[in-house]
């Protein structure tokens, strides 16, 4: 049986960096916790827990020690609380997310009405808009929502890093009709679209597609949806033990990809297992 593994399978740059920082910090610090699970992988969170990293949801619940800030980032208020409580932050905010936060601060300081394309309740978005200081950021999901924005003299436009370029472009189009001056920072990180495009390409060449990653990971679930549309024999699993040999009856070529928070050891385990099936 032939296995095609996507080059883009697994950790993106920001998640890899956050995970490395977390494991390193766990070696050097005690007590230590992370503000929310460091990534959407129960297996990685469990390994970090074994190394003493507790998951805490609110800064108020941390009395002392080191706190790891995950790749999505946190709000400016939470960061201020961390400092006020004399906690030691290990900032694993993805540099691409940090950049959006900085652009929002800059645009507000220069008097732009800031519009952010993204999901209102996502922690990354909550973090980003908190950097507007006193100003308010209008969060819109798409061009339809952008149509409802009031006209402004100047608009500053940014995006949540995981947005699609098409959606961002459509909102930019609407903003151009709402203001005489529009300043656009394309803050989309292409790790997601690169992974999705590669998954689409592989799904069309194989008899069965395996998607690896947390069931609570939005980007992994989306990968599974994309592949299922092209290859009905698509299975989303978190770990190798969930794979059933009977899925592979008559299968000659298997495609494998994994979400941005799936660790390499899980990918390797799956490759070993699938490689052991005779077909
Ligand atoms: Fe950063 Fe892009 Fe990953 S924004 S966390 S490298 S998906």
UniProtKB/TrEMBL annotation:
It catalyses: dimethylallyl diphosphate + 2 oxidized [2Fe-2S]-[ferredoxin] + H2O = (2E)-4-hydroxy-3-methylbut-2-enyl diphosphate + 2 reduced [2Fe-2S]-[ferredoxin] + 2 H(+); isopentenyl diphosphate + 2 oxidized [2Fe-2S]-[ferredoxin] + H2O = (2E)-4-hydroxy-3-methylbut-2-enyl diphosphate + 2 reduced [2Fe-2S]-[ferredoxin] + 2 H(+). Binds 1 [4Fe-4S] cluster per subunit. [4Fe-4S] cluster binds at residues 12, 94, 189. Keywords: 4Fe-4S, Iron, Iron-sulfur, Isoprene biosynthesis, Metal-binding, Oxidoreductase. Dimethylallyl diphosphate binds at residues 40, 72, 122, 217, 219, 261. GO terms for molecular function: 4 iron, 4 sulfur cluster binding; 4-hydroxy-3-methylbut-2-enyl diphosphate reductase activity; metal ion binding. (2E)-4-hydroxy-3-methylbut-2-enyl diphosphate binds at residues 40, 72, 122, 161, 217, 219, 261. GO terms for biological process: dimethylallyl diphosphate biosynthetic process; isopentenyl diphosphate biosynthetic process, methylerythritol 4-phosphate pathway; terpenoid biosynthetic process. The keyword Oxidoreductase applies. It is an enzyme of class 1 (oxidoreductase). It comes from the Bacteria. The active site is at 124 (proton donor). Pfam families: LYTB (PF02401). Isopentenyl diphosphate binds at residues 40, 72, 122, 217, 219, 261. Its EC number is 1.17.7.4. Its cofactor is [4Fe-4S] cluster. Pathway: Isoprenoid biosynthesis; dimethylallyl diphosphate biosynthesis; dimethylallyl diphosphate from (2E)-4-hydroxy-3-methylbutenyl diphosphate: step 1/1; Isoprenoid biosynthesis; isopentenyl diphosphate biosynthesis via DXP pathway; isopentenyl diphosphate from 1-deoxy-D-xylulose 5-phosphate: step 6/6. Coiled coil: none annotated. Catalyzes the conversion of 1-hydroxy-2-methyl-2-(E)-butenyl 4-diphosphate (HMBPP) into a mixture of isopentenyl diphosphate (IPP) and dimethylallyl diphosphate (DMAPP). Acts in the terminal step of the DOXP/MEP pathway for isoprenoid precursor biosynthesis. Belongs to the IspH family. HAMAP family: IspH. This is 4-hydroxy-3-methylbut-2-enyl diphosphate reductase. It comes from Syntrophotalea acetylenivorans. The gene is ispH.
């Amino acid at each position: 049986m032939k296995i095609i593994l996507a080059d883009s399978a697994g950790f993106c740059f920001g998640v890899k960096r956050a995970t490395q920082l977390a494991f390193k910090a766990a070696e050097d610090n005690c007590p230590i916790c992370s503000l929310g699970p460091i990534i959407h992988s129960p297996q990685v969170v469990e390994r970090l827990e074994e190394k003493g990293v507790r998951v805490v949801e609110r800064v108020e619940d941390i009395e002392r020690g080191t706190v790891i800030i995950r790749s999505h980032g946190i709000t400016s208020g939470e960061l201020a609380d961390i400092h006020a409580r004399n906690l030691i932050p290990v900032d694993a905010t993805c540099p691409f997310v940090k950049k959006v936060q900085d652009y929002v601060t800059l645009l507000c300081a220069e008097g732009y009405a800031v519009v952010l394309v993204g999901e209102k309740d996502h922690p990354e978005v909550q973090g980003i808009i908190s950097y507007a200081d006193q100003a308010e950021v209008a969060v819109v999901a798409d061009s339809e929502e952008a149509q409802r924005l009031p006209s402004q003299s100047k608009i500053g436009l940014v995006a949540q890093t995981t947005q699609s370029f098409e959606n961002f472009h459509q909102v930019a189009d609407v903003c151009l009709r709402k203001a005489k001056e529009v300043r656009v920072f394309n803050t989309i990180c292409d790790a997601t679209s690169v992974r999705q495009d590669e998954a689409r390409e592989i799904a069309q060449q194989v008899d069965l597609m395996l998607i690896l990653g947390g069931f609570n990971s939005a980007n992994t679930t989306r990968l599974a949806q994309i592949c299922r549309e092209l290859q009905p024999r698509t299975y989303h699993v978190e770990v190798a033990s969930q794979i059933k040999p009977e899925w592979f009856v008559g299968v000659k070529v298997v495609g494998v990809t994994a979400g941005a928070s799936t660790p390499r050891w899980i990918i390797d385990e799956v490759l070993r297992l699938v490689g052991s099936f005779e077909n």
